[in-house]
Each structure stands twice: as structure tokens, then as C-alpha cells.
């Protein structure tokens, strides 16, 4: 014999069990989606298209494209002439319009500013190394992939650009280096 109280308890536990299983299933599906989307994420980096514009066709611009890494974990760089993207705003707009995942570009006059700073004097004290290269990406699109793959790749590319600059122009830069001026050390 089932009393009304036992029937109510059975209905309550049945409804609670169904709700708990539904929540756990939803959590499981969410985790499967999240873990599946980052599975071997670094091996799919080449599918990310990055715009490369060299507004400075001199040493800094050549150094940027000299050590480009072609690998499955590194984004694919598409080098475009500055005539196609005449201002940095057009490069940023191309990323916003989802033509590219990200973009990296050299600033106009970056080589001249660096050369002047290496010679010492007021140019060395006012030199700002952060305006030589600029990179942007649309973090709204896929924030986890942007942070992990693109930012890491850009950091590697900037470091490789420094190495390339030293190998391309290092000996010439050393001849003009102001050795008696302590300001060039900060460059």
C-alpha cells in the first residue's frame, strides 16, 4: 500500500534525479565542446591568416619577414604592399572585418629612428622601441585562440625579428654605435 506521502516522495526524487542527470549531461557536453576545441590547438595554427604590411621597406621591415617560421603551429603570414593598405587604420579595419585573424606591421621610419638612437644623443633618450612593430588581432572572434596561438606567435616573431636585425644590420650598426653615450644602452 502506497500512501500519498510516499507517492509524493517518489515523484519528488524522480523529478530531482531527472533534473540532476540533465544538468550533469549539459555540463559533460559543455566540457566536451571546450576540450575538443582546444585539442591539438597549436597544430592548427597555420590555419590562422595574418596580414603582414611593411610600411618600412628598410632593415626593420626586411628583418620582420626574414625569420618567418613556416610550421603547422605558426600562423600563415600574407605579406601585402603598403599601397594596398595605405594607413595603419586600414590594416586594423581588415582585421575587424574578418579578412584576417590578425595583422602585424612595421611603422614608417622605424629603421631611421632605430639607427639614430644607436648613434646616441637625444635620439637615444627619446627612442621608443614599442612603436617599431605593431600587431593587432580580433579577440572578439575567438579569445582563447587569440591569446594562446596568436600572441605567442607574435612574441616569437618579434624576438626573431631582433635576431634577424642583428644578423642583417648588426655589423653596420656597431660601426656607428656611440660607445661613450650611456643613453644608447636603453635602446
How would you describe this protein?
- 53% of the residues lie in helices and 11% in strands.
- β1 (49-54), α2 and β2 (76-80) form a beta-alpha-beta unit.
- The protein has a four-stranded mixed beta sheet with strand order 2-1-3-4, with helices on both faces.
- It is elongated, with a radius of gyration of 27 Å.
- With 187 residues, the chain is α/β, with parallel strands linked by helices.
Considering the chains and any ligands shown, give keywords for the structure.
alpha/beta, D-Maltodextrin-Binding Protein, domain 2, 2 domains, 4-stranded mixed beta sheet, 11% strand
Write the layout of secondary structure elements.
Layout (H helix, E strand, L loop, with lengths): L3 H35 L10 E6 L4 H8 L9 E5 L7 H9 L5 E5 L3 H9 L3 H5 L6 E5 L5 H33 L12
Parallel strand pairs: 1-2, 1-3
Antiparallel strand pairs: 3-4
Helix pairs in contact: 2-6
Count of discrete structural domains: 2
CATH topology name of the largest domain, in short, is D-Maltodextrin-Binding Protein, domain 2
* Overall pLDDT confidence: 80
Strand % is 5-15%
Low-confidence stretches: none
Helix content: 40-55%
The whole-angstrom Rg is: 27 Å
- SS summary, helix count: 6
Strand order in space, largest sheet: 2-1-3-4
The helix/strand order is HEHEHEHHEH
CATH architecture term of the largest domain: 3-Layer(aba) Sandwich
Work out the number of β strands: 4
First CA to last CA: what distance?
Answer: 89 Å
Structural class: alpha/beta
CATH class category name of the largest domain: Alpha Beta
Shape: elongated
Sheet having the most strands: 4 strands, mixed
Amino acid at each position: 500500500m502506497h500512501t500519498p506521502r510516499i507517492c509524493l516522495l517518489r515523484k519528488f526524487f524522480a523529478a530531482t534525479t531527472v533534473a540532476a542527470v540533465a544538468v550533469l549531461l549539459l555540463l559533460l557536453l559543455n566540457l566536451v565542446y571546450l576540450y575538443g576545441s582546444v585539442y591539438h590547438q597549436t597544430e592548427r595554427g597555420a590555419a590562422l591568416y595574418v596580414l603582414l604590411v611593411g610600411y618600412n621597406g628598410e632593415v626593420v621591415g626586411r628583418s620582420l619577414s626574414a625569420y618567418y617560421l613556416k610550421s603547422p603551429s605558426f600562423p600563415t603570414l600574407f605579406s601585402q604592399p603598403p599601397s594596398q593598405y595605405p594607413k595603419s587604420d586600414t590594416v586594423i579595419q581588415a582585421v575587424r572585418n574578418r579578412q584576417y585573424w590578425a595583422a602585424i606591421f612595421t611603422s614608417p621610419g622605424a629603421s631611421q629612428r632605430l639607427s639614430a638612437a644607436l648613434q646616441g644623443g637625444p635620439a637615444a633618450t627619446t627612442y621608443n622601441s614599442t612603436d617599431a612593430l605593431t600587431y593587432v588581432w580580433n579577440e572578439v572572434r575567438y579569445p582563447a585562440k587569440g591569446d594562446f596561438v596568436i600572441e605567442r606567435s607574435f612574441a616569437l616573431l618579434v624576438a626573431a625579428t631582433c635576431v634577424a636585425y642583428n644578423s642583417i644590420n648588426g655589423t653596420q650598426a656597431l660601426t656607428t654605435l656611440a660607445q661613450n653615450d650611456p643613453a644608447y644602452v636603453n635602446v
